Amino acid sequence: MVLEEYNLDRQKALISLYPHQPLRGQSALVTGANSGIGEGCARHLAAAGAAVAVNYVRNPEAAQKIVDDINQSGGKAIAVIADVASEEQVMSMFLTAVAAFGTLDIVVPNAGLQQDSKIEKMTVSQWDLVMNVNLRGQFLCIREAINEFERRGMHDVSKALGKIVCMSSVHEVIPWAGHANYAASKGGVMLMMKSIAQEVSDRKIRVNSIAPGAIATPINRPAWDTVDAESKLLDLIPYNRVGLPDDIGQACVWLASDASDYVVGTTLFVDGGMTLCEGFASGG
Ligand code: NAD
Fold this sequence. Notes:
Strand order of the largest sheet: 3-2-1-4-5-6-7
CATH superfamily: NAD(P)-binding Rossmann-like Domain
Radius of gyration: 18 Å
Order of helices and strands: HEHEHEHEHEHEHHE
Number of helices: 8
Shape: globular
Distance between the termini: 30 Å
CATH class: Alpha Beta
Helix content: 40-55%
CATH architecture: 3-Layer(aba) Sandwich
Bound molecules: nicotinamide-adenine-dinucleotide
Oligomer: single chain
Strand content: 5-15%
Structural class: alpha/beta
Number of strands: 7
CATH topology: Rossmann fold
C-alpha cells in the first residue's frame, strides 16, 4: 500500500472533520510527533482547535513542516526538541510548551521504538533503549503533565483538569515473539496508565490509552509496503484494511475531548479487530 503524505491541503481538509472545534482554547503536547501516529495525533488535535507542541528528537525539518502546515491553516503550533528518555530534557520541553501556550490541557506520550531480537540474542542495550523510551519516557511525560495541570488549576475550557492519552499497542495484551522488550514495555504502559488513572482521577485528571493495531507508519514499513507483506498482515485484521495515522488521530481527539468525559483508565483498542484473534474466525 502507499501511504498518503500529509500536507497543507490535507491539514485544511482535516478541519472540516471538527466543525464544532471541541478542543478550542486548549493546548496539547504530543511526543514523537514528527512521524507516523504522533503526526496524525498532532494534526488532528490542531484541526480540532488545540494549540499543539510537536515534539521531536531527530529530523527537525519534519517537525517544522507539520508546524508550518498547522500555522498556515489557521491553527497554532510550535516544535520542541527533547529525548523523552531524559528527565532533564522532558522537563525543559514542558517549560518551553507552557511558556509558549500558557499551560497544557492535553498530553499524548506517543514516542516509541522497537529493537527486535530473539530473546537469546537480545542485548541489554536493546532492552534498555526500548524500556527507556517506551515506558520511562511515558512516565516522565505523565508526571510533568500532572504537575502542570495541578499548577494551573481548573479553567473553563474542559470539564477535566487535564487529559493524558498514552500510546500503547495491541501488544499490551497480545504476546509478541521476537519482540519481548517491546511487548513488556506496552504491558507496562497498560498498568502504569491504569494505576496513575486510579491515583489522580479524583482530581479530575483523565488518563487513558490508545492501543493501535497495525497502523502504516515508518516503524513497521516492511509489514505493509509490498503487496505480499500487506496481504500477510491483513490475515491478522478482521476489518481487512491496514490502519492509518488518521484512525488514531481521530480517536485521540475523542479521548482528549469532553465527549469522553466519563472515560477513565481505559485502553481504547483501535485495531480493526486484531485483538479478536482472527485465527479463531472459523471456529478455532
Ligand atoms: P514512528 O517510528 O513513525 O514514530 C515514532 C516517533 O517516536 C518518531 O517521531 C521518533 O523520532 C520518536 N522517538 C523515538 N525515540 C524517541 C525519543 N527518545 N524521544 C522522542 N521521540 C522519540 O512509529 P509510529 O508507528 O508512529 O509509533 C508511534 C507510537 O505508536 C509508538 O509508541 C508505537 O509503539 C505505537 N504503536 C504503533 C503501531 C503501528 O502499527 N505503527 C502499533 C501499535 C503501537
